[in-house]
Design a protein that fits this description.
Blueprint: H1 3-19, H2 24-31, H3 35-47, H4 64-72, E1 78-82, H5 90-108, E2 114-117, H6 121-128, E3 139-142, H7 154-168, E4 171-173, H8 184-190, H9 194-204, E5 208-211, H10 223-226, H11 232-240, E6 243-247, E7 250-253, H12 262-266, H13 272-277, E8 280-284, H14 290-298, E9 304-308, H15 309-320
Amino acid sequence: MDEIERTHNAIVAARLYYYQNLTTEAIAREMVISRSSVSRLLAYARENGLVSIQVIDVEDQPTSLAQAILSHYKEARKVQVVPVSHILSESDWLERTAQYAANYLNTVFDSDMIMGVAWGATISAISRYLQPKTTHNSHIVQLNGAGNTRSMGIEYASEIILRFAQAYQASVDLFPVPTFFDFVSTKEAMWKERSIKRILELQQRSDLLLHSIGAVKSGVPSHVYSGGFLEEKDYQELRRFNIAGDIATVFFRRDGSFDNIPINLRASGPNLGMIKQKRAICVVSGLGKAAGLHAALSGGLVKELIVDEPTARLLVSKYINNEKDKFLDEKYFI
């Protein structure tokens, strides 16, 4: 059976199974194939994006945690809390959250759309769970450069961005510049180059942005803090300006403000004003990111959020209810 025939048969089987509620045995009789062949066709349909499955939980929508976040942070518009046990590792939380986010993206990204993607540990995890979906005239554009003094970071960032492009059969536009320039003047000159201006204009035209919150201390370290992108003088500046985290390697303070921070003038990521203006999905996992998430929400930098349950509980307990949660580590309440 060639690929075209397999795809056709998978669609026929999926229609009979999901639309007409036929059993695999009934489908096997109708298609004159074995039940095991029907099961393989249904699996093929799911794995190749021919079928999209959505669970609507009418008993818990929105969850109490999501509702608490929406009520407290007035500029937040949508919060999805991913159920995960607090007894699992933070790596497990990230994997579950990434899988949820990857499935959700298939419901919001479509043909004739541009998605801006900020690389990082969380986005890398999401890219590994993307389900194939055929789109037309769609684009994936990298939001921030990945180069540092050790390498240009092309291999790391491009692998993430290309996974998105391959999953959606989209055109890809990489951003081959340093994460942070040594001199503001160098960045200003670079931003005048036509090849770079084309990428910047594509970023501005994005219909959807995907990013996380970078944090200095988290269970799964943010790549910008663990990958040699910052020097000691940079960390001193972050402390001096009360930096809570970053979005696409552009930093913001504990109150969510991001103006007049010197390192941002050298950063290749977008002005965070663009994050506030566009539809941007923020995916966060890990207790160490709660402080940065609180700051970003307070500053109106996050309007649509996907977050794991333990991190959401810490956010609500510490920053909304100002109380301790018996299930979470005491150190996050200091």
